[in-house]
Amino acid sequence: LRESILNSLEWDGFDLEEQGTQYLASLITIFFHERKLYRRKDIEDKRYITGINHLVYYLTNNLKRSISHFQKVIIRKNKEALLMDIHTKRNLELTESMRNKERTYSLLWLLDETKTAMGSRKLKAWIEAPLVNKDEIEKRYDTVDTLLEEFLLSEELRRYLYDIYDLERLCGRISLGSANAKDLIQLKNSLKILPEVNEILKK
User: Fold this and answer.
1) Continuous H helices in the chain
2) Is 99 helix (H, G, I), strand (E, B) or coil?
3) Model pTM above 0.85
4) What's the pLDDT score for residue 38?
5) 8 Å CB contact between 120 and 134
6) CA dist 109 to 1, 3, 20, 122, 133, Å?
7) Contact 57, 31 (CB under 8 A)
8) Using the 8-state DSSP alphabet, how is residue 78 labeled?
């Protein structure tokens, strides 16, 4: 049993004697049940698999609750975005200024006119990982160009987005069972607006 557990966990140098019975029991529960929820069948690289195993255990052990609401793991390829180390990002002041270590006066602060928390997070992710594929860059430029030309639809879209709450956070609270009545009302009001947003995007 000891060898089968160690082999299935794929952890090098894991010592059952040092970790203890309770720790081992939690590992068995997590890795034989939870990790199957997040690993896609096309992920075969053992380095990715081991990393996922460690991450799933860390999250489950620290949150002290199920993370079954998490989606499947997405492996982001290095060739899809420009690689920048932490020093480069800091010197370019992409998301925070060097002097105050705050968002103010950074590139994100200058560009962020988003109307939702989800949009702000997406913009930050785009700034920290610029595209390198020419086709994808031009596709994004075309989208921005369309929004600038169709300014009436753009303004209407902005008004609708202003009334949409943070759906990602709301869904997380609901999945964890920690949502309250206010969260549910915000979710209801946001979902009512989504069809209008979808119609604008179709135009």
Assistant:
1) 2-9, 16-19, 21-29, 46-63, 86-91, 107-111, 117-128, 134-149, 151-162, 167-176, 181-202
2) coil
3) no
4) 56
5) no
6) 55, 53, 48, 14, 25
7) yes
8) G
201 Cβ contact list (under 8 Å, min separation 6): 157
Question: Pick from 66, 74, 70: which is nearest to 30 by CA?
Answer: 66
The SS3 assignment for 81 reads strand
CA atoms of 136 and 12, how far apart (whole Å): 40
**What DSSP element (H or E) covers 20?**
none
- What pLDDT sits at residue 76? 73
* 69 in Cβ contact with 179 (< 8 Å): no
Q: pLDDT, tens digit, for every residue of 93-117? A: 999 999 888 999 999 999 999 999 9
Single-letter amino acid code for the residue at 117? A
